[in-house]
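Figure S7 source data.
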Amino acid sequence: MILGLETSCDETAAALITHDGRILSNVVSSQADLHARSGGVVPEVASRRHLELVTPVLREALGEAGAELDDVELLGVTTGPGLIGALLVGVSAAKAIAWARRLPLAAVDHLHGHVASLYLEPDPLEPPFLCLLASGGHTLLLDVRDRAAAPRVLGTTIDDAAGEAFDKGARLLGLGYPGGAEIDRLAREGDPHAYEFPVARVPGLDFSFSGVKTALLYAVRDLPAVELEQRRADLAASYQRAIVRALVDRTHGAAAQVGSTTIAVVGGVAANSELRGALPDAVLVPLALCTDNAAMIASAARFADPVAYPRYLALDAYASTA
Ligand code: KG4
Ligand code: ZN
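Tokens for the predicted zinc ion complex:
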């Protein structure tokens, strides 16, 4: 079986899957509560928490799968992009486990991991497909032709990521962190046409979300406190509608451009109920696999070139691909 480890941001995660992509266990310990006080992830706090959680989370994943470390044949670990200190915790743990058992270790790119969440049982997706990857750190349109090769990037955000726009919008509305799920929930009680929030249309297949965030900021600022309380759900619904419309428009545009008949959506924002409803024919990653998890990292490890013992001891984490 394959052990996956993921510690790139504020989720400490371990999972065991079979070589054919069946999930045996998938344990995610979120630090969201820890970071809620500051309204966002504090990198140094995240690293320290990963260090405390990585062993118990791994134990729980083994326990749930009814497995022992001796059953593991391959490890996959996120080496980037992400918070460097956070990544190093997972990378060091993976190196130690692999080295002690002379196992091969696959270095997994977090974004490939999100795409590989589509390759797990019971409904694994076969390329080619057009993939919208929308998370807290990235918004990408990918032309996926092959499970092993890096996909071609057709479009990306020129400023904020879609999840970041949700998180920042939630903060403006006085909602909790992480904000995407909070806006999603509140939006159900509001009128999505109450406000006309414009989303900038940048040339090509790129996205821009900083303008819509500023539009929300002005709308919030112009409302007296009592009225803000009454209009909060309308603001959330209108804001969500604007972001989802931009995502859906560009995704359809990209699919048309590359002649793709299959559209898939992955990443934390793929959990958004309005986005899911707006793309009824798309392959939507199961809710449990939208936000960061280690099953997707183990899945990507299946298609990576594993590094043999002991060469991976020189593996390093990287904060960004640029
Ligand atoms: O993929 P992910 O767990 O982490 C990154 O790789 O960034 O994505 C986290 C992002 C956060 O910005 C969060 O607000 C957003 O996904 N998110 C949502 C929903 N659930 C999580 N955004 C919109 N609607 C949701 N239901
Ligand atoms: Zn992610």
